[in-house]
Amino acid sequence: MSKRRSTTWILGLALAAAPAWAEVTVTEAWVRGTVPGQKATGVFMKLKSTEDVSLVNAASPAAGIVEIHEMVMRDNIMAMRSIDDVPLPAGKTVELKPGGHHVMLIDLFKPLAKGDKVPVTLTFVGKGNKRTKLEIKAEVMAPGATPMHK
Fold this sequence. Notes:
Layout (H helix, E strand, L loop, with lengths): L7 E7 L6 E12 L7 E10 L3 E7 L3 E12 L2 E6 L3 E3 L4 E4 L5 E7 L8 E9 L5 E11 L9
Parallel strand pairs: 2-11
Antiparallel strand pairs: 1-2, 2-3, 3-8, 3-9, 4-7, 4-10, 5-6, 5-9, 10-11
């Protein structure tokens, strides 16, 4: 197993009526690679904020549609659905991971191969509906990758 370099991005959010800036840290951002003909995949990462904010949108030039999703159990069947946001409580790490919350890249423009870097723009909203964007570059892992086997 190779060692991966952990990359961190920090975002300053100007919060209305708040004296401090919130910092959102993104670590371990990765994308599951695709096989020929596959038109969708997931983006996974860890997020942590110094203030209460929510991840409300994601965009990427790699796909025609980008959505925030969650996995839910319905009638003993795991199902995926689009959601409006993922809350980031101050000081707590929120993991976007396979089988949980994640970002979906749908209608991919080309296959994603191990080692590629995929730009993803994340939009956060904080107090006073202040929206701020953060661009990250998520590394593509092998198609069958899981957090333990990236």
